[in-house]
Amino acid sequence: MSMRATAVGLLALGIATAALPLMAGDYFVGVALWLLMYVALTQSWTVLSGMTGYVSLGHVVFYGLGGYVAALAWGALPLIAIVPLAGLAAFLLAVLIGLPVLRVRGPYFVILTFGVAELVKHVVVAIEGWLGKFSRVLFGAPDMITLFYIMLALAAAATALTASVRASRFGHGLLAIRENEEAAETVGVPSVRFKLLAFGLSALVPGMVGSVMVLRSTYFEPQQLFDPVISFTIVTMAVVGGSDDVKGPLLGAAGFVLLSELLWANAPQVYMILLGLLLIVFVLFMPEGLSGKLFPPRRRGAA
Amino acid sequence: MDAILSGQLLAAALVTGALYALTALGLNLVYGTMRLLNVAHGDLVMIGAYVAFWAFSFAALSPLLSLIGAGALAALLGAALYYGLFQRMFDGSRAAQRLEANSLLLFFGVSVILQNVAALQFSGTPRGFQYLSDVYRLGNVALTGNRIAAFAVAIVLCFGILAFLRFHVVGLAIKALIQRRDAAAVVGVDIERVQLLTICVGFATAAIAGSLVSMTEQISPFMGFPFTIAAFVVIILGGLGNITGGIAAGFLLGALETYGVAVTSSAYRSILIYGIFVLILLVRPQGLLGGRRIVR
Q1: What is the 3 state secondary structure string of B61-117?
Q2: Could you tell me if residue A13 is inside a domain?
Q3: What is the ipTM of this complex?
């Protein structure tokens, strides 16, 4: 499939999704919102982790921070200011923690990102406890249709961001870092700056997504918003879908949201067990993911 | 201030430290010999705890006996995972290159499966039982019998394994594998068998630690996670693959946690553990105590 065909396909998909609230009831809009959330999160995740190979197992920290910012600012600021503010906060957090964290490589980076996310979660829990707030209820949150369109925009933005990074000089630099960081530096890739920017960009949209989701649930509770299962789900979706092009996260997110709709309500444990099994099967037998299997990469010139 | 210097806290720190040392020992062995990052390690603790709980509830069997069964069960699981998942990954240089990162994802999958199978089978409700809960006094220190027993078993196992690694020929082969894998093969170590043995021993010690833990606190399907984190903190503190350093670091973490909570509050326990974890990875990933091996 050529770049143009993919772009046209994605655009058609976006328009069809935008028409959904006109045709379907609240239940389907709710499911679609959930799906778009994971598309946005997983696409963003691939900007750092798919392209540089620095696998982040703590991406929920940006989502959670965005939600926390929205919970604090709700009532004081309009929605149109809150969403970008949440994204900015997540971007800044990523750049701030990225400088020390990105020095650590490979599996240590993976467990470190996880540790940082848990640390931030427990710090937020402690702050909220210290303030005497164990949860915050957000009154007068926008209706679901509004949030749905914001989320659609975020999913589209994350997809566009990932695609444009991938096509850029910056993206090629990131891929070079993944293949061999020393060699990349030798040929002039500013690896520290590139990794930091990629980390920041991969946090930007998740922060905004968190702010939308906290308004959707009209409720802020740190254990729920910083739930490590979200980080795990993002990684699994990317591994199963494939993170070598923009179609992978779409396939991964769609597959798992469908699966969770079938199983979550009645058998949440069965859903989690399947998640674990699929992760194992794909890591062992199909490391290129669904998208790599369905659309094998062509040689240059053919595309 | 008196409370800080009391023998009571010291005893608590020693008991926690011995359990951390035993839990982390298995993780260290598995990582040291095979470079597998077992993030499901704490879930083996959970399995051991449930074995002890059910054996006690149904057969009134002492956890100090059923821990043998818990260890055997975990060893079987280790062997199954070794043959099912990891053996294929040791051949072929490309797979071996990504082994560390992939093992982490694979074990993450295993961890999620174990937790949720346990939740499905045993329900999420925390459970507990009373065994050896009489209080004994040693000087001005009061300890329950189960804590004394847990401490004793953990110490005996830790030092037993240390002695095995130092004096037995198979133990020496394990150490050789930790130090130089390729060189170990050259001098005739049967790498396959040593790896299989190591994963079985590593898994078994974690489950035994779980049986010991079940005597002193409530158990639940999701209890394993803090143990995984604690075990990683310990082996990173002690230097990855450094077995003696890891045991010392177990006691160090036990002390840091016990005294840290005593001077602040139990609400900060998680912040303390994760704080140490993040700090040590950032500042000194080669470990405080070891430092021979350089982490990439």
Answers
A1: CCHHHHHHHHHHHHHHHHHHHHHHHHHHHHCCHHHHHCHHHHHHHHHHHHHHHHHHH
A2: no
A3: 0.85
